Amino acid sequence: MNGRFGIHGGQYIPETLMNAVLELEEAYNRYKDDPDFNRELTALLNDYAGRPSRLYFARRMTEDLGGAKIYLKREDLNHTGAHKINNVLGQVLLAKRMGKTRVIAETGAGQHGVATATAAALMDMECEVFMGEEDTKRQALNVYRMRLLGAQVHPVSTGTGTLKDAVSETMREWTKRIDDTHYVLGSVMGPHPFPTIVRDFQSVISKEIKEQLLEREGKLPDAVLACVGGGSNAIGAFYHFIEDEQVRLIGCEAAGRGVNTAETAATIATGRLGIFHGMKSYFCQDEYGQIAPVYSISAGLDYPGIGPEHAYLYDKGRAEYVPVTDDEAVEAFEYLSKLEGIIPAIESAHAVAHARKLAPAMSKDQIIVINISGRGDKDCAAIARYRGEDIHE
Amino acid sequence: MNRIHRAFEHGKAFIPFITCGDPSLEITEQLVCEMEKAGADLIELGIPFSDPTAEGPVIQEANLRALTGGVTTDKIFEMVRRLRRKTDIPLVFMTYANVVFSYGTERFVQTAAEIGMDGLILPDVPFEEKEEFDDICARHGMSLISLIAPTSHQRIARIAEKAEGFIYCVSSLGVTGVRSEITTDIGAMVRLVKENSDIPCAIGFGISTPDQARAMARHADGVIVGSAIVKICKEYGENCVPHVVEYVRSMKEAAVSASESV
User: Tens of pLDDT along B221-253?
Assistant: First the structure.
């Protein structure tokens, strides 16, 4: 069985793409332990993206909540403002080694699109990004950034005009032009080998958290929190703790207006087993398997599925997944801004929101690490709108 | 043994695709009967899916129209039950893995076989993933149709050896939809199949004109046309039947004439 995580994963894609993913798997296996490749990638991650990212002790938040010590993993400080760059630098470097001259990508909030456009500019590749029409409106700033970086942005108007439609359209585009093109998938989803490749490139997050926290506190965290859409920042933050069973791994899903409403994107809470976008995993869907038109205020979490490795960690009981509503996320967005002077991405604010519930019930010698997967500048206009204020960017 | 082999017993086969419930299931039912009379040899019935990743805009929109109209897998099963009292033409479902899997693969395939379906095409289930569907199909006498694409190369031999019913040869890169020109060396693809199996080959993706049908049929045992028919259904809505019939007749004639002109 190819690329399975328990029963999840696989390669459910058109025959037209099969040789492309097989070729990718072969190339990845060739380069992942190649010293030259890794030297070049590490240099890019450090000198260009600014790694390692800081692990910051959030003193005011810790005092305010009165329980566990809170640390923030500052992926928002990476170049381009999110964790997405970790994976993109790896994949574009790999694509270059494979002789590709063009990269295509889907994007939700625009962070992955911006990261891909950035890496393409850096490595002199042609770049086209597919983005739901709805998302091009709520993330107009990121659309401009991608264009500025030399990428072509295609608004996708099919379906709900959000992330899932952007993924579908990028897959369609890939079937049209394969020879010179690599699809830089942005999350731990899609057909094998993408969930593994993206996880490996993102696992630098948990590797650093572990080292940094051991140095600071001399012990492992009691809980690691991250927001989950497809789940790339979460798997990155979880990966090196999976074997440390005492560390709670908590993925925070976007509940939108609530898991009891139709306007939600909480896959573990409301979805069931299915096959979509190349993988077997959990999906929000109706009784006939039609994919649900999900909703979240966060364009990056507005996706009806979850990566196969998360589905497996959930099945095994190794990770927990909790729903966080729009309201809670917006409050957490404002809370972290006021209390710590850090404006988190609305996606990451979902994890902050859950930490606010969790920390007070924990003791003062316990530790929570929240992965701040991205910065929130991109969200300011949308959150202002949510609060009834119209600001012009 | 199901009915699929019969599709290739009347010269080059013409295989139309329609989306069930576009514009309505009543029209779908009429279309099947009338297309048979007009010369169709096998009919692909599309069960609409919300996110059909292998389709171009024409069939994507047809899926959306059908779903918006309230079509479900169960309603399509009922329609096929009614159809089977009127026709014995070979019929295969074309849909996406999740439609089958979410219904319960065993339950889906068993029901489809009971109501008289002959096969199943799942464009998002490649050779590597077909086993979980194939075994169940085999048990119920349904053929799971294999696809090969211009990028398949060395994979063709392996796919052909295990193929059932017929092989769906994808003519070009990309998704479904009308194309002005097909540049793939289809003949070479089909030859690779025939070296490994005597299974019939039908070519689809991008074929819309009688000239293309004739040219493609020279290389294979049949041609498949989807988007061009779905376009007619969209244009004429409830009144589409005579227009589709006329089109199918011209395409079947063109396909058959391919063997005469060789």
Answer: 999 999 999 999 999 999 999 999 999 999 999
A 10 A CB-CB count for B256 gives 18
Task: In whole angstroms, give the CA distance from residue B95 to residue A260.
Answer: 30
CA atoms within 13 A on the CB side of B204: 30
- Chain B 117-156, CB below 8 Å of chain A: which residues? 123-129, 147-153, 155
Residues A104 and A91 in one domain: yes
Distance, in Å, from the CA atom of A305 to the CA atom of B194, rounded to the nearest integer, reads: 40
pLDDT tens string A278-324: 999 999 999 999 999 999 999 899 999 999 999 999 999 999 999 99
Q: Which of A156, A173, A198 is the last residue of a domain?
A: A198
Query: Total domain count for chain A?
Result: 2
Q: Rounded to whole angstroms, what are the CA distances from A314 to A204, A322, A324, B143?
A: 22, 11, 17, 35
Q: Which residue of A has its CA nearest to B98?
A: A275
Together in a domain, A122 and A214:
no
| Rounded to 5°, angle at Cα A117 from A111 and A120 | 140
Extended beta strands in A13-86, E state: 55-57, 69-74
For residue A280, list chain B residues with Cβ-Cβ distance below 8 A.
101
Query: Would the CB atoms of B170 and A159 count as touching at under 8 Å?
Result: no
Residue A391 lies in a domain: no
- Whether residues A114 and A98 share a domain: the answer is yes
pLDDT at residue B64 tops 80: yes
Indicate whether A249 and A380 sit together in one domain: yes
Residues A58 and A101 in one domain: no
Residue A77 lies in a domain: yes
Question: Which residues, 6+ apart, have CB-to-CB distance to A179 below 8 Å?
Answer: none
Is residue A257 left, alpha or beta, with left meaning phi > 0 and alpha meaning psi from -120 to 50?
alpha
Determine the angle formed by the axes of helices A204-217 and A194-202, rounding to 10 degrees.
30
A324 forms beta bridges with A254
Interface of chain A toward chain B, CB-CB under 8 angstroms: 2, 10-20, 158-159, 164-165, 168, 171-172, 175-178, 272-278, 280, 283, 285, 287-291
Pairs across A and B, CB distance < 8 A: 116
Q: Which residues face A375 on adjacent strands?
A: A344
CA A11 from chain center: how many Å? 21
8 A C-beta contact, residue A387 and residue A379 = no
User: 0.90 cut: is pTM over it?
Assistant: yes
Q: Could you report the predicted ipTM of this complex, rounded to two decimals?
A: 0.96
Q: Look at residue A8 and tell me if it is in a domain.
A: yes
Q: Does domain B4-261 have CATH number 1.10.760.10?
A: no
User: How far is Cα B141 from Cα B115, in angstroms, rounded to an integer?
Assistant: 12
Contact call for A14 and B124, based on CB within 8 A:
yes
Per-domain boundaries in chain B? 4-261
Tens of pLDDT along B80-89?
A: 999 999 999 9
CB pair distance less than 8 Å for B151 and A16: yes
At a CB cut-off of 8 Å and minimum separation 6, what does B71 contact? Answer: B20, B21, B25, B48
Residue of A nearest to B55 (CA): A172
CB contact under 8 A, A175 and B67: no
Determine the structural domain holding residue A120 and report its residue range.
4-45+83-198
User: Cα-flanking dihedrals φ and ψ of residue B10, to 5°?
Assistant: -125, 55
- Residues A212, A332: one domain? yes
**Spatial separation of the C-alpha atoms in residues A357 and B13, rounded to whole Å:** 65
